[in-house]
Design a protein that fits this description.
The chain is an alpha/beta fold. 44% of the residues lie in helices and 13% in strands. It has one domain: 3-Layer(aba) Sandwich (Rossmann fold), CATH 3.40.50. The chain has a seven-stranded mixed β-sheet, with helices on both faces. Strand 6, helix 9 and strand 7 form a beta-alpha-beta unit. The termini are close together. The structure holds adenosine-5'-diphosphate (ADP) and magnesium ion (MG). Involved in chromosome partition. Localize to both poles of the predivisional cell following completion of DNA replication. This is Chromosome partitioning protein ParA.
Length: 268
């Protein structure tokens, strides 16, 4: 914590949950956009072969020739893979289809879990935050993100078995702390696609809060159709419709996260 505040290094946050469709990419894109609106410089790293974060930020498929795969494998320097987005202050390392084969290649490589950490750490000083959008699996790509990160942010959809679903992730975080990355923190848990008319949503949210306590953000992200429309326009919802409930929620989430970090730094 203290080291963080004096060194002025980028804070690296992996956005992870091995379940697909829970709002990882949506949270990555819109949290990043809300952060740059508060004058933070943010780098998004798309580590999912599906490339939804790259598409959602408007990076053309033709403009992904050098991508996160090459950074991970050591074929390119981070700077060579960075693209500027239309949003001032927000840069992205896109993913490419090559990334889908990376796992098999990584298995053969020395220090296969620390490759992303080694590529990022010396190269991210120019940013305040680096957000890593992880694939929906606890594979070697996600492990690389967790080893490189200072903290993990977990988007969680309030559905049956949500808690059982993240127990595996929690165990993985624990194992990584004991091995490669002792300082790895749980940044927080954000409840996504929240539907307050649904009793099950409320029940699951109460269980998650009982289990994780104040690690769960007060801000919840509502289910909102504008959020699901935005990616097809290659824009964050905050740009597509900055007044909708989804945009407001992400602005609140960013504010809550930054406030909690300031408090933690002061307390350290
Ligand atoms: N709050 C929300 N309201 C409505 N749709 C959402 C919301 N969050 C995400 N979605 C939609 O749900 C789908 C899955 O979200 P996504 O962020 O891609 O999940 P993940 O990255 O975890 O697989 C996408 O089509 C996305 O547009
Ligand atoms: Mg995704």
């Amino acid at each position: 914590m203290v080291e963080q505040s004096v060194s002025n290094a980028a804070r690296i946050i992996a956005i992870a949950n091995q379940k697909g469709g829970v709002g990882k990419t949506t949270t990555a894109i819109n949290l990043a956009t809300a952060m740059v609106a508060t004058r933070k410089k943010v780098l998004m790293i798309d580590l999912d072969p599906q490339g939804n974060a790259s598409t959602g930020l408007g990076v053309d498929r033709a403009d992904r020739a050098i991508n996160s795969y090459h950074v991970l494998i050591g074929e390119a320097k981070l700077a060579e893979a960075v693209r500027e987005t239309e949003i001032p202050g927000l840069s992205v390392v896109p993913s490419g289809i090559d990334l889908s084969g990376a796992e098999i290649e990584l298995v053969e490589m020395a220090r296969r879990e620390v490759r992303l950490a080694e590529a990022l750490k010396p190269a991210v000083a120019g940013w305040d935050y680096v957000l890593i959008d992880c694939p929906p699996s606890l594979n070697l790509l996600t492990l690389n993100a967790l080893v490189a990160a200072h903290a993990v942010l977990v988007p969680l959809q309030c559905e049956f078995f949500a808690l059982e679903g993240i127990s595996h992730l929690v165990k993985t975080i624990e194992a990584i702390r004991q091995g490669f990355n002792p300082g790895l923190e749980l940044q927080g848990i954000v409840l996504t696609m929240f539907d307050k008319r649904n009793n099950l949503t409320e029940q699951v949210a109460a269980d998650v809060r009982a289990f994780f306590g104040d690690k769960v953000y007060d801000t919840v992200i509502p289910r909102n159709v504008r959020i699901s429309e935005a990616p097809s326009h290659g824009k964050p919802v905050l740009i597509y419709d900055h007044k909708c409930a989804g945009s407001e929620a992400y602005i609140h989430l960013a504010a809550e996260m930054l406030k909690r970090e300031r408090r933690a730094t002061k307390g350290a």
